[in-house]
Every structure is written in C-alpha cells, then in structure tokens.
Write a structure and sequence with these properties.
By secondary structure, this protein is an all-alpha fold. Helix content is 68%, strand content 0%. It has a domain of 82 residues. The longest helix has 36 residues. The chain binds zinc ion (ZN).
Length: 122
Amino acid sequence: MEHSVQNEQMELIVQRLHKLQHDLGEEIAGLRDMLAEVGTDREQFDTSERSDALQQRNMAKANIMLSERRLRQVEVALRRINEGDEDFGYCRSCDAEIPFARLSVRPESPLCLNCQQQQEVR
Ligand SMILES: [Zn+2]
C-alpha cells in the first residue's frame, strides 16, 4: 500500500480543519454569550431556578473548555501541515499511520484510535 494520505486527501483535511476552526470559534463565542446571560439577574431567581442556572453555567463552562481544547488541537494540526511536518498523519504516541478514514473525521487528533481510547480510559 502506498502512503495512505494523498495530496487531495490532505487538501480535504486542511479544509475540514479550517471549517472546524471556524465552527469551534463560533461555538465558543455562543457559549460565552450564554454564560454571560445566565449570570445576570441572579437575585430574581428562586432556589430551583438558581440551581438550574448554575447547572447551565457549569455545562456551558465544561463545553467551552472542551471546545477550546479541540480548537487548540485544530490549530496545532494546521500549523504542523503548514510547516510540512512529515509526521502529520502518524500517531504521536505509537507512531502508527492514522488511517484517512479517521483523519477525515477527527483531523485534529494527534493520536490513532487505539491510543485515543486508551487515553480516554485513564
Ligand atoms: Zn497510536
């Protein structure tokens, strides 16, 4: 088998990364707006409304953190491609070649599926 990530596939991955960068940016901005809204008029809430609001805040904060982490991965991946990093497309942990099927779904991930799953278990 030839190198599994061909030029056109690379272009597709770069496109996906740019789209992800844009979408994640919007998502984070939207969540920040929501967080700002939930935080206002706190005194008007009764107790149950306040705990709902708190829950919403915590969820929004968790989502912002996840999205920001993913956005950083996207930016790192784009930088690596721009710099012509030949190791792009290979797992950071075990050096296995990451199949295009996975790269096209999670182009920002520096890990193969196995290593990713192991990391999530930990
Ligand atoms: Zn791996």
